[in-house]
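Q: Sequence in, structure out?
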Amino acid sequence: MKKSILIFYFLLLYALLEMFWWGSVLIDLQPQRVGMVIGEGAVFLFLLGVGAYFIHASIKKEDKLKEQQQNFLMSVTHELKSPLAAIKLSLQTILRRELDKEQRTTLISNSLKDVERLDDLVENMLLATKIESRTYSFPKEEFDFSELVAKIADRLQVHSCGCEQIIKTKIEKGISVMGDKFALSSVVTNLIENAVKYSGPCAEVAVELRQNGSKPFLTVSDKGPGIPDEEKMLIFDKFYRVGDENVRKAKGTGLGLFIVKEVLQNHDADISVRDNAPQGAIFEVTF
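A: Exactly. Output:
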């Protein structure tokens, strides 16, 4: 990519030098046409500058996209290896050691959670691909959204923080929506997983679903580092992740919020993000 930029600027410099040279030659031959040469030269310079700006922006955008794709591949590799290693270790422990029923149940339960994590990752990748290629139809039906949110929050619950549950839910019962149950489950899963991922160890995450007038209103709040104002709209771009890729500790592929935005747009729903107090972020979804 750097080579392409260098070649582009070399050709741009060559074109400018050629223009000035031919202009000077024409003025020497026909001094009375100096006004015409300057006028046409100014128009040429303007058009050349505009073209150079857009070409340069396109090259930089392509370079950034390539870097994001490389980071995505590394993230996916890490996301796949971690649960696979945990599942392998659990199965090896069950095979090689004499364990009581409770220990076996715990290992199997942990393995199933890792399988669900892998399943979520694969579903995210497939859904993102289908959405971007416009091959996903978003089949809609009426279903109990309250039940869906409660089940997902319970599945993602973290039980390794003593008696405290990390996900606090406040879900109004009986709220129904007309939509794609599979795609909307991906929306809820991604929002809660992000909140848990970017919060500190055992920090509380709040999930609230209520009826706001005649419209369902979902909020997911965390107490993580928060999102800078200049990045609040960028986080919904494909592969985009907050912060410096070289020092970031939180895992992720950069697909979650892209899927959230695309799915909600296809359900005539809005999503916004604002700061939490004293720290963190609040995602609000209005149908």
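Residues 17 and 23 are 10 Å apart (CA to CA).
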